[in-house]
Records
---
Amino acid sequence: MTAALEPDAPDARAAAFLARKARAFDDALDAAQPRVLENRDTEAVHDLRVALRRLRTLLRLARPVFGRFHTDAVRGAFAALQTSTGNLRDEEALVETLDALSFDHAPLHEWRRRRLARERRLRQSLVSRLRRGELDQARALLHALLVLPVRPDRDPSLRIFARRVVRKARRGVESRRDAPTDDAVLLHDLRIAYKKLRYAVEIFSEALPTDLAAMAEPAARFQKRLGDLHDLDVAIAALGRARGLASESRAHVIAALREARAKKLAKYVAEMNPAEEIAPDAPSVGVTPTEASRS
């Protein structure tokens, strides 16, 4: 049997590397599923969600190599589970955001109890999906995809492929860098772009030159800052739609959320100046909102 080439070997190919990464994410899914079913620890759902998200990201990037039709069929098999874990995460984030306010207000406590009941229903829905075998079925499709042969003309040099993927993800960030800080939708799009860049760099880090590999840290940092803002924007919107909460109570809580958002925004703006001087010809992955004063 021919020994596998190292990722940085001149003749390393993309297909073998992508298959190895996909199997590693599949192993993570296999390890997380029984933990979720048995409710062994609080990190089980988080680990399942991360493995699903990273695997589906890798499959999206692997379309040119494995073929769009079959790759998208496998991605689709995991989609409902990823949505289920994402909905649960959003509900958990909402509760955590409100808890962080330490807001001692009886009407809000009652509303929170209703939201906690919704969180329990979402968690049970995820468990039911796993027990029905949805994850096992999706993993079986993944295994089939990974044993199919790849056309030689679709299997480029890993070095070339990795650089191409990361540079495309970086352009996605750069095209959204001027998102106004008071526009929740555009900031969310920017956060997703940073997440795509971060995952692309982390997946291909072994095959990237130092300048491109260095983008993982700032991408993760800005993703986190924008994620904090997103959680507060979601909470503000949820309170605005809240039923059974008097307008006065709603106004008090939203005011507290807006104050918390202003503090998070100040931290984000303080860090947004480009400090990632990766290479003289490499555009920054930092953000420079043009309308920060509007918030």
---
Amino acid sequence: MADEIRVSTGLRAIKGDNRVEDIKADRTYTWGGTHKSANTQTVGTTHEALELAADLGTKGWATLMNLDTINYVTLGIVVSATYYPVIRLKPGERCVLRLEATATLYAKADTAAVALDVLVLED
């Protein structure tokens, strides 16, 4: 089959004279794999790898949501034992992205542990 995954994104902002008109994308993609990894991970204030199901082969589309109501969480990579944050999810925020198949994504909470909802589809 094809087009089993549907990804919808959009952005619109208005503040005073600054305007960003609707930027929308609604696309479908083929789900190449058959497995998924879905869990809620408690992320502490020291970076840790995302916990993915053992039967998840090649990482593909992912959605991550910060379930905390107070603290933010960062997502990033580790190079030579140094954590580099590249994404910040404030309380209640979600992101959708395609993961690099061989990369390990790490998370780190800001001030106190947060619950991070993680869903990754096999590519």
---
Amino acid sequence: MRIKVFKTIFFLLLASAVPAAVPDRTDSTSAGTLAIPPRPSGTMTGAEFIRSVVELSVAEREQAILHEISNGNIPEFLRRLVAIETTQKDAEGKRRKVAFFVMPDYLAVGSNDDLCRMPMTPHTAKRIAELFGASLTTTKMVDIIYRNAELKLRPLPLTVTDSVRIHPATFLAHSGLITSQRVSAGKPLGTLIAGTKKDVVITHRLTERPGSVFIYGWHRLNGKPIQPLYGGHSAAYVDYSHGIRLVDTRVKVDDVWMDLRALLADPVLFALLADEPIP
């Protein structure tokens, strides 16, 4: 369903409107938790942050996003990752048990009560992931997450101009619509939800087009994605439909812990969580 009230929301919003070192992630005893600093008291809410970046350039806004999130300004519920256990075939056809841990929702700025699911460039997302001991998703992981989501929500595309698609106020408006969907479904914060954004993903195709952003997902309720894997935008392009889902780099394969990055680069094991090896 197209959102006909969006312009009213948009104009109402306009009217109101130094990172730590990369952590050691070799200890599997705390798998399912990321190295995210505590949220500072008195820090900006999601709406306040959006108002603070409305007049900034994209580069300045990305720096502000990195500063806020790397210093812990994310909702508390996103710190509790959800375990996904699945059985997949490796590249030799052997069935293996795989367990990995994902954020229950897309990365956001703000508090549990006032948040904005924050679209950002892949460069900023990758830097944040590295700081927290996390990774972005692959297309296969997006599909697995969708199948395992407790709450599958109907995508809400907005019929708006290109200039509105990329405006920070639109990011906040769309995030608010997703929150309303969750509340209407009667599910609490921390429920694993899917179907609400296109994931910014990692893919082997980045080796061919390193200056691009690759997006995938936004699954309809029938399980089919609106967005096939697409890399036609510059890495500097960001719009309201993009989402960042962080995944713990510690995964378990047949009860053995390993690093997700090593798994994705392995010529046999990559197939458990990706469609191709990712160096």
---
Amino acid sequence: MPTDRRSWLKQTSLALAGLGLSPILKAGAERKFFSPANPIWLNSNENAYGPSTLAQKAILNTYKNSNRYPDDYLPLLKKKIAEHWSRRTASENVGTENILLGAGSSDIIGLACQHAAKTKGHIVTAEPSYRVWNNQASSFGLSFKRIPLNDEKKSDVAKMVDSLDNDTRMIYFCNPNNPTGTFVEPEQLKDQAAAAAEKTFVFIDEAYTEYAGLPSLATWAVKNPNVVVAKTFSKVYGLAGARVGYAIAHPNTIKSLSSYQPWPDAGVSMVSCNAAMASLDDADFVSHCREKAKTAREMCYDCFKKFSLDYIPSSTNFILFNIDKLKGDFTSLMQAKNIYVQFREHFGGKWCRVSMGTIEEMQQFCDALKEIAA
């Protein structure tokens, strides 16, 4: 059985499509990709509590109109996003002209890579950091200069900026960082990003700022044509499967990025648009998910301490912890208990990145870890 869930789901979907079948989940139904085993997915940083009730209602109210293109809804979502940031920052400098929609923030990163690859060169990024998009960048002829994290396991943004040279085409900041869950203070990041923007294209990935309770650099980014801030509805809003993300940037930058799409804002469906708009109205849901993730992290920390397992304190919905002391293939042992986590090789050792599920799921994770570590 493939250990990568996306690969497994792709294979399953193809098989079902070949039979003329497709899996259907009713609203609020339990996920059962393997029936009756019902595994616990803790390997993709998804929100185990989402979508919110408001988003679910929006999906059910609009899916019947899926025979229509989303053209009328795209401007409404962009207007909603602009109002969201204006309200949160007491500023009106984020307008619809500053927003570009995409199929998740990974789609936005891909557009940025195309933008950066007009002239061949390299991208500066932290190591380790989010890598899913790296193959796409490489296919455009871009290479990588990877700067190790500092002693606190945070992105060394000063060294990253110092490493820029004439061949640098983009610098990528993931804050909070994936897979470590650590973050650089926004003001420090802004200062370094401003210095970097004088030399190269700057991409700031803010997929997890809502979990960390960090302010966004969005309202600053709109003033600088060399900066893009990427946001997503995949994480705290619980819409990973709906595929909605967006860039916030200077209007000229938005125009440039949109030129790599079939048409501006392509890739977001009408149903996804409505789900995203409803999600922005559910601040209580976001607060609830943030608190649940915090509680789950504390549970895991207590468990790690009992077995003297090193871990990196996280501000997100995942934790990176060291499994060098554990015998056997940890991910396989967890899979035998229907729990799916990610294996990582970092810092000269073996690590596991575990996403925060529901409190009940994390209790099962901790129980399984105790059995494996015993």
